[in-house]
Amino acid sequence: MDQEAQGGAAATRGGLSTRWVELIVALLICLGGAIVVFDSVRIGAKWASDGPESGYFPFLTGACLLLSGAWIAGAVLVRWKRLASSVFVEWTALKPVLEMLLPTIAFVVAIKLIGIYVASAIFIGAFMVWKGRYRWPLTVSVSLCVPVAMFLLFEVWFLVPLPKGPLENMLGY
Amino acid sequence: MEDIGNLMQGFAVALTWQNLLFMLVGILLGVLIGVLPGLGGANGVAILLPLTFTMSPTSAIIMLSCIYWGALFGGAITSILFNIPGEPWSVATTFDGYPMAQQGRAGEAMTAAFTSSFVGAFIAVLVITFLAPLVARFALKFGPPEYFAVQFLTFCSFIGMSREPAAKTIASMMIGFALAAVGLDIVTGQLRMTFGHMQLLQGFDFLIAVIGLFGLGEILITMEEGLAFKGAKGKINLKVVLETWKKLPRFWMTSLRSCLIGCWMGITPGGATPASFMSYGMARRMSKDRDTFGKGNIEGVVAPETAAHAAGTSALLPMLTLGIPGSPTAAVLLGGLLIWGLQPGPLLFVEKKEFVWGLIASMYLGNIVGLLIVLTTVPWWAAILRIPFSIIAPVIVVICAIGAYTVHNNMFDVVMMVVFGIVGYFFKKLRYPLAPLVLALVLGDMAETAFRQSMLLSGGSVTVFWSNGLVGSIMGLALVLLCWPLVSAGLGAWRGRLRAAELAAESPRAGEP
């Protein structure tokens, strides 16, 4: 109840509406269920001479997934009017989420290109300057210490190799 | 009595200086993980798992389980001092813990929390010590139908006991099963749901899901809430500890009740989180001064903490004896056992005695060590929380990425971790429970194998699940738990109608159970 009340207060400020997010997620679940059912039927979901076929169990899983998605979507539609004022995330709150998510995606791409150590140093440093507005000495020391500690812990002590890039190659690792 | 002898041998295993050191490191890491947002018992253990591959299995499991105890302890610190539950199971602790801290009774609240955590865990370990060998001996008789029935019970109790809507619990569970099915089918050698992508051949590893869902997802939610850690001073001295200890025996009844709730919810996988809420609710309903709950009643700290720790600990019982984990963290530990080449299940108690009893002995020691450590080091942890989030957040993301990569040394896993993180953000906000997804992903293959073998035994008839008393009663219990929300709603409505008839139009709250 109080979730909806909070939503009502927030609606004036605007945001992503809960009912649409609920509905879309439920429909995606239905879609996932349909894919599972479809693929299970393709490989055979019946009873062969030597026992259940490969798709037998996944078929049941997919069917349940499809039904539960439909159930959730139905429940959302039934409460459609009542959910009108409920906000999933306000636009102002979505901004920091994206400010975390997009750099994270960039970081993952960077791991592939320049190795995890350099990527982490840049990621942590950039984030500290951008969001925290720290001075350079602190930023540089944190963003260098973390990768160095990682390197010692993983490569040296536990002998677990992590993805490396051109810099590590140059240093002979 | 044979078990006592085994336990003593276990202590001999656990009490080597090396294992004690691992225990200490584990507890410290665990508290750190429990305190930091975005890192919790499940994904913390998942991230550290690859580091233990070179250790002996016994030392490794001792360290990892101690991380788990530490995380359970650590969650309480943030709830009480900062009103931020570091872990989902410490949400109920904030209700009374934070008001106490605001009144300047933080030390008292934390002593109560740690001590009751310890009591809960200790009782649960006693239960494990005496019940686990019996369950294991009993489970030796299990065939495929019985195994499937127990797994069915596990999943039904999730649906029945969940605080989330049943349809969402089912959806989340089925996603787990579907993801588990992706890849090579080991029985027929057929490819399932790979759609021509080589990377999907191996299927999805649940460790990646755990790190993404609980790690990155949590960070995104924390960003949205715009966390600013403002909290009470965390000071504990010996005087406060002793004074609180003097008060605690008064709550023995609450304690005992919470232990029972916790052990029950841990063994049948309801998990620590619902256990803590249930226990808080019960304590409040049974208490004489119900009105002070939520305003800094020490009993409101004792109840959820005891239950959460009892549940968290007893979740290891089905993991060890049946190979069915009772919580996501237990699932990760199970994954570890498999990687070290140990097959959890009843045979473990026969073939790897020293391992099992070493682990159980380490549970006793780990909790004692844990209690001493958290009581003495609280100010440090509070100081860590004062590090701004703009430093902590990227560091945690980096740690999650490393954790995801090291599972299989595969970049694709890191990408999947981010995808799971986004899913985790949406699911958490829409109240889809995450634990069933993880457990279904872990148990998917096992459940499917058991199901197939049972079907083969019966020639495709589901009556095999009612073919004897044992499997029938497990299935029956599972169905009761599955329908439990309907039953309790029906009872509530019936009782409400009775009361409404009695009170006529007087009480507007008659519908509440």
Which key phrases capture this entry?
heterodimer, A: 173 residues, mainly alpha, 2 domains, two-stranded antiparallel ribbon, 7 helices, flat, disordered N terminus, B: 513 residues, globular, disordered C terminus
Any idea how many domains of chain A? 2
Global outline of chain A: flat
Give the distance, in angstroms, between the N- and C-terminal Cα atoms of chain B: 45 Å
Low-confidence stretches of chain A: 1-12
Classify the secondary structure makeup of chain B into a structural class.
Answer: mainly alpha
Q: Tally the helices of chain A: what do you get?
A: 7
| Strand order, largest beta sheet of chain B | 1-2
Hey, roughly how much beta strand do the residues of chain B contain?
A: under 5%
| Major sheet: arrangement of strands of chain A | 1-4
State mean pLDDT of chain B (0 to 100 scale): 83
Terminal CA distance of chain A: 58 Å
Tally of domains of chain B: 2
Strand element count of chain A: 4
How large is the radius of gyration of chain B?
A: 23 Å
Oligomer: heterodimer
Radius of gyration of chain A from the CA trace?
25 Å
Q: Count the strands of chain B?
A: 2
What does this structure look like?
The complex is a heterodimer of chains A (173) and B (513). Chain A is mostly helical. Chain A has helices at 2-11, 18-43, 56-78, 91-114, 116-132, 136-157, 166-170, and strands at residues 15-17, 47-48, 51-52, 87-90. In chain A, helix 2 packs antiparallel against helix 3 (56-78). The radius of gyration of chain A is 25 Å and the shape is flat. In chain B, strand 1 and strand 2 (191-192) form a beta hairpin. In chain B, strands 1-2 form a two-stranded antiparallel ribbon. Chain B is mostly helical and 513 residues long. Residues 505-513 of chain B have low confidence and may be disordered. Chains A and B meet through helix 2, strand 3, helix 3, helix 4 and helix 5 of A and helix 8, strand 2, helix 9, helix 18 and helix 19 of B.
